[in-house]
Amino acid sequence: MTHDVVIVGGGHNGLVAAALLARSGLRTVLLERLDHTGGAAVSERPFPGVDARLSRYSYLVSLLPHELITELGLKLELRSRATASYTPYDGGGLLVETHEGRATAESFRAATGTGSQYEAWRAFYGDAEELALAVAPTLLQPLPTTESIREQVGDGVWEDLVAHPLGDAIERRFASDLVRGVVATDGLIGTYASLHDPSLLQNRCFLYHLIGNGTGEWRVPVGGMGAVTDELRRVAEAAGADIRTGVTVTSVDAGLDGVVVHADGLDLEARWMLSGVAPYVLAGLLGDPLPTKPQGSQLKINVLVDRLPRLRSGIDPSVAFAGTFHLGETYAQLERAFASPSPDVACGELYCHTLTDRSILGPELAAGDAQTLTYFGIHWPYDARGPEAKERGWRAFEAAIDAYLEEPIASVLARDAHGDPCVEVKTPADIEGDLAMPGGHIFHGDLRWPWVDRLGHTPAERWGVQTGHARVLVCGSGARRGGAVSGIGGHNAAMAVLDHENRHA
What we know:
Blueprint: E1 3-8, H1 12-23, E2 28-32, E3 43-44, E4 54-55, H2 66-72, E5 78-79, E6 83-89, E7 92-97, H3 102-112, H4 116-135, H5 146-150, H6 155-163, H7 166-173, H8 177-184, H9 201-210, E8 220-221, H10 225-238, E9 242-245, E10 249-254, E11 259-263, E12 266-275, H11 279-286, E13 299-305, H12 317-320, E14 324-327, H13 331-339, E15 348-351, H14 363-367, E16 371-377, H15 386-402, E17 423-426, H16 428-435, H17 459-463, E18 472-474, H18 488-503
Parallel strand pairs: 1-2, 1-12, 2-9, 6-14, 12-18
Antiparallel strand pairs: 3-4, 5-8, 6-7, 10-11, 11-12, 13-16, 13-17, 14-15, 15-16
Helix pairs in contact: 1-10, 1-18, 4-6, 8-13
């Protein structure tokens, strides 16, 4: 055969798989539809004439394991943010430091009128850490069993975070609607669900947001998200992987002993195919029955400001915006937004990359006070699309943030070469069109528990990357432990191939 492995999709997971497989001596070719690799983890200049490279779709890094960075030899710098989160409210704001100290405790007391809510907070996240420390070491290994994880944590931890809807534990353990909301948001980013959903989708989303490297800390990649995937491409090509961009795969013939990938007039034969595209897209390429199409529920807004706006609370903007800035995310607001999704409701969170890393700005901007702001809105209706819906989404965001500012956000917006405000709005439909993500779903579908009740028989099953075809594996976010920028799906698919090759050598 011409190749040992063909990888379809040049996102970060595909690049991880390509690096590992090529390094192991397998003839590996990667095909990417776009004219560049990186998928959703890219840095681009969205504003004409403005030298600012924003992380356009994916913003922060948590789940990328330190062990994988070391194994691949990646030259990356991931910086901690001094502020974990800030949640404004009428008359003040709830500040949570990355390394919690007196300021965090005093902020909880001022926001809730008692010290008990901070005590409850510390106890709850102590439980979350217990579960994270049990799960994180398994992510680059064959799937663990449910029971093997269950026996490592206390009964209360399992009941609150795994067995019952997350909303039950939040309502029982916290009295403050504000604090409840801050806790709940990690269960809803990129996920359309009630906090009481019996499917426990919100619990699974919460878990993935808290288990990165056992700490759950979300860090800023120096140079932007594109620096991460550029580095992955470097090590993949150095290992000998053949990376081809601008190539559209049209169909795949999968057999028991190999595959034929048809792409732009090419017929590539290989013993294995790894899919970095969404399972829904893969089914179409294989000619399989299409599963239910996933639908995303997030609004993304990218902004450049001349300087950070002043807040009515009086807090230093460089502190408030340094972490995750919550808007419209009290517990009650979250549940209302789920029940009645509308482009006229802003419910989400804001990140300022440049307070931690100014390298994404050109020299002139970096020398001044310019900052990037990226907003991730949740519970956005998938059917809201087009210029009018995007304008409504921006106006809702504008009103939500202006409620806590001394000056309107519009007054600090930078202007591009045409004199237009540096504002970019992306709906799920836009993301679907840009990245071929079905429904604009950033996880390629619903997240699943990173464990199984029963161990599989084949390497693909044991690594959680199997499909209905023996020689086709999932290496992207659609893998059992996929989702977010982690490289875990790519690593595990590569390990499944190598396990099979070694067993049959």
